[in-house]
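May I ask for a sample protein chain and its fold as tokens?
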Amino acid sequence: MKDKVLEIPKYGIRVEIWFADDGQVDGGEIKSKLMRGSDDKYDAAMGAVETMILNHAMSLIDIASKEYIEGVDTSVDFIIDEYGGQYE
């Protein structure tokens, strides 16, 4: 089965899922622009969001749906409000 790429452009999120020959999910990775690299608590919280998104995508949940993206927006907005600053 062919690899699958899902994106949430607002945060530069790109998830790639790859499949084994039998069609089962074999792995995946996520890249995004959520992390700052200079704020441990902020980055830990955003890392948790990234991990959740990757695991949902690997469970074949449609992370590109409007409803899912609204949930991601809510989580990211909360983290920004909690730890200060803004999404860059």
